[in-house]
TrEMBL record:
UniProt KW keywords: Leucine-rich repeat, Repeat
Record organism: Porites lobata
InterPro entries attached to this UniProt entry: Leu-rich_rpt, Leu-rich_rpt_typical-subtyp, LRR_dom_sf, LRR_domain-containing
Lipid metabolism found in the keyword field: no
Pfam families in the cross-refs: LRR_8 (PF13855)
Annotated protein name in UniProt: Leucine-rich repeat-containing protein 57
Lineage: Eukaryota, Metazoa, Cnidaria, Anthozoa, Hexacorallia
Alphabetized SUPFAM superfamilies for the sequence: L domain-like (SSF52058)
Organism domain of life: Eukaryota
Length: 238
């Protein structure tokens, strides 16, 4: 393993960028941690890593961390020390819970992707992150969205393929939320309220695969207002 990754580590010392994607790693190489605060981008995706060592907290200049497609069952609380982190991707792992207070100090986070895990709860503290643009929690086991989602500053929220049966009224308060993906959940028609359709900023509402068909949604109060936003947005990009 040492010989195959040595050139990558040497390059990372100069550039601050390290990609060890698809190297067959079963653990994070200990020598990687010598890079410390000089590392800005780290990609460990498509390996077989089961544990992310607490020493990851030493990468205090890290802006992008990609851990997609590994065997992680948990994350260390020391991740919260990466105060400059802007992108965190831990898709396709085995996460069931997240450390308490994980996002408290990640105030620069812009993109969070935790799809295809085993998470059962929506991280409530995300509402405090002012720079967060996109959250992907698709393909988990989340059953409810807390009222605190109304504090989110995101532009896109992806909750496809979870177990959500209702939507909080506070979603309509998300002034920057343009795209809400909530396909293949357990939503009844009444979950999509007139308030959400009329008062929100959502211009793309993806709800296919729930307990109603789109024809029924078209007859819901407020659907015309939603379609006006959808059409206006579409015209901007055509």
């Amino acid at each position: 393993m040492g010989n195959s990754i040595s050139p990558h580590l040497e390059s990372a010392q100069k550039t601050g960028v390290c990609s060890l994607c698809g190297k067959g790693l079963s653990e994070v190489p200990p020598q990687l941690f010598r890079l410390g605060a000089s590392l800005r981008t780290l990609d460990l995706s498509n390996n077989r890593i089961k544990v992310l060592p607490s020493a990851v907290g030493g990468f205090t200049s890290l802006k992008s961390l990609t851990l997609t497609s590994n065997h992680l069952g948990s994350l260390p609380s020391e991740l919260s020390q990466l105060k400059k982190l802007e992108i965190l991707a831990v898709d396709k792992n085995g996460l069931k819970t997240l450390p308490t207070g994980l996002f408290t100090n990640l105030t620069h986070l812009k993109n969070l992707s935790l799809s295809s895990n085993q998470l059962t709860a929506f991280p409530e503290s995300l509402g405090a992150l002012r720079h967060l643009d996109a959250i992907d929690l698709a393909d988990n086991k989340i059953r409810t969205l807390p009222g605190s989602v109304g504090d989110l500053q995101v532009v896109e929220l992806n909750m496809n393929r979870n177990q959500i049966a209702s939507l909080p009224d506070s979603l309509a308060r998300c002034t920057r939320l343009k795209v809400l993906r909530i396909e293949e959940n357990c939503l009844p028609l009444e979950a999509v309220t007139p308030q959400l359709l009329k008062e929100s900023s959502i211009s793309l509402l993806a709800v296919e695969g729930n307990l109603f068909d789109i024809k029924q949604l078209r007859e819901t109060e407020g659907y015309d207002q939603y379609m006006a936003r959808f059409t206006a947005t579409k015209k901007k990009f055509t």
